[in-house]
Backbone:
């Protein structure tokens, strides 16, 4: 079955540590996105990538980094510079064809900083 | 950046009744897409319905329909014959064909379905 997978589902991190969240898709989608979701704030865009080896900052990129070495994968690293990293993180992808306006989401990763 | 506003943080509806969730957006673009996503307690985001701005006809998907008012920049979601499984957070989203095809989300409306 085609889809988007995120791992792990729950992640715990100590303050000062970097941590990487995985996002993989086998939908052959060109564009991929990372969002952060906090209570009462909806989804906020962290980074997005429209093609391999290219990505752009979203509205809240500070303290995060990404890479896009393969079309299928778009990992997000939460660095120690992120002041308040505890949140729910959602990865999404979208085909680049003219009719491909819809974004599809993975199941999410809940990150908790201890 | 475009903004999307959902002014109803919480709504409730009796099972089998109809409910309308509101969404307004701010943009200077003429061509764009609008979406409603559902997020149940599992937190998996599910596409409910989408609307292309160039289409005058309102989109419909089974019990879900929208009222798209382009001039008023309004995009409401109507759920007919509400079911218990409709209980979820609902997010309105705007996609710009410019600015890298970014999506902009509202803050969500929590829908409760009363048996």
Residues:
């Amino acid at each position: 079955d085609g889809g988007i997978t995120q791992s792990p589902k729950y992640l715990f991190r100590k303050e000062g540590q970097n941590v990487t969240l995985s996002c993989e898709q086998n939908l052959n989608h060109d564009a991929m996105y990372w969002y952060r979701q906090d209570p009462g704030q909806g989804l906020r865009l962290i980074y997005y990538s429209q093609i391999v080896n290219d990505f752009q900052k979203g509205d809240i990129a500070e303290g995060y980094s990404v890479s896009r070495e393969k079309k299928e994968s778009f990992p997000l690293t939460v660095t120690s510079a992120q002041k308040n990293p505890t949140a729910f993180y959602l990865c999404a992808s979208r085909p680049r064809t003219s009719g491909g306006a819809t974004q599809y989401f993975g199941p999410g990763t809940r990150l908790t900083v201890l | 950046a475009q903004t999307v506003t959902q002014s109803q943080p919480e709504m409730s509806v009796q099972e089998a009744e109809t409910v309308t969730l509101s969404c307004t957006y701010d943009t200077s673009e003429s061509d764009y897409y609008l979406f409603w996503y559902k997020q149940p307690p599992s937190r998996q985001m599910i596409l409910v319905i989408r609307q292309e701005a160039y289409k005058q006809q309102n989109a419909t998907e089974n019990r879900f329909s929208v009222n798209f008012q382009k001039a008023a920049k309004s995009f409401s979601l109507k759920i007919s014959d509400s079911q218990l499984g409709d209980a979820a957070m609902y997010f309105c989203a705007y996609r710009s064909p410019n600015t890298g095809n970014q999506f902009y989300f509202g803050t969500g409306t929590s829908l409760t379905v009363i048996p």
Q: What stands out?
A: Chain B is about 0% helix and 50% strand.
